[in-house]
C-alpha cells in the first residue's frame, strides 16, 4: 500500500467511526498491510487482498479480556 492508499483508508475510517483521532500508518517492512491507531493506542491491522485484479481490505482488531472488564459500580 502506498501513501495515497493509506490516506484514503484513514479518511474512510475517520468518517465511518466519526473519530478524527484514527491514524493509519505504513508498516516498515510489510507493504501489504498498515497499522491502525486511535491516538497513540494501537488497535489493529488493515491487510490488503488482491484477487483477480480486485483490491479489498480486511481490518482486524484484537480485543483483550482486560478490555472487557467493567469499571462501573452499577
Query: Overall 3D geometry?
Result: globular
Structural class: alpha+beta
Q: How large is the count of helical segments? A: 1
Looking across the biggest beta sheet, what order are the strands in?
1-2-3-4
Give the secondary structure arrangement, pairings included.
Blueprint lengths: L2 H15 L4 E5 L6 E6 L2 E11 L2 E7 L14
Antiparallel strand pairs: 1-2, 2-3, 3-4
Characterise this structure.
With 74 residues, the protein is an alpha+beta fold. It has one domain (3-62). Helix content is 20%, strand content 39%. It has one helix at 3-17, and strands at residues 22-26, 33-38, 41-51, 54-60. It has a 4-stranded antiparallel β-sheet. Strand 2 (33-38) and strand 3 form a beta hairpin. The longest helix has 15 residues, at 3-17. The chain is globular and about 45 Å long.
Amino acid at each position: 500500500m502506498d501513501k495515497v492508499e493509506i490516506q484514503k483508508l484513514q479518511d474512510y475510517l475517520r468518517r465511518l467511526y466519526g473519530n478524527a483521532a484514527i491514524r493509519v500508518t505504513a508498516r516498515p517492512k510489510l507493504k501489504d498491510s498498515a497499522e491502525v491507531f486511535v491516538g497513540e493506542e494501537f488497535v489493529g491491522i488493515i491487510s490488503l487482498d488482491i484477487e483477480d485484479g480486485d483490491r479489498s481490505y480486511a481490518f482486524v482488531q484484537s480485543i483483550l479480556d482486560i478490555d472487557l472488564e467493567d469499571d462501573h459500580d452499577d
